[in-house]
Amino acid sequence: MHIVIEGQDGTGKDTQAQLLVEYLKSQGKNVYCYPESGTNSTNPFLAKIAELNYGSDQGIDNRTHSLLYLINRYEQWRTIAEPALKNNDIVITTRNWLSTLIYMGYVGGMSKSAIIKSHKAILPERYFHPDKIVILTLTEEERAARRAAQGERTTKEIWKSKPSEFQQKINQSYLDVAKKYNIPTLSAAGTPEEVFERLKKLFEL
Fold this sequence. Notes:
This protein has 205 residues and is an alpha/beta fold. Helix content is 54%, strand content 12%.
């Protein structure tokens, strides 16, 4: 089973993914979980790409960002997800190709068709059809309050430190993509435990 948890920065994707890992493992399931960004990868090559993409604004344009994300996306799919799925294990990823479509395309101005074509050319068809997917949502006011409560650790990543206008565009783009691709959304407001209860109900777990 392939599960995708998507959503804007600050919606708690990683928190919900970890709660889901613990829940499924308590049922005796074999579970693999990773963020497609590669930000916690033990592979130094993928970790370096993630550092380039997130660590600072190094004059990289959106086409380059898109290609770097695709490298990490494909390599982790090839080395982690595919073997696990072939073994009938569960794979949970935070983010998928829709993040690039939204950040680089809808908001960044890169050709959306170019993003779709490049991903279709590299990734297998199985990748594009997760068994369960959700987009976590928050209002901009809720997201800003959560970031403020988290403190300075979130400001080191270039996308998280973008101004409110940028974040509002990202939020609206996620809602537009959810509607276009018929993807369920779930409010991430409340405690992690409250959100997780809603997530389990949505996923029928």
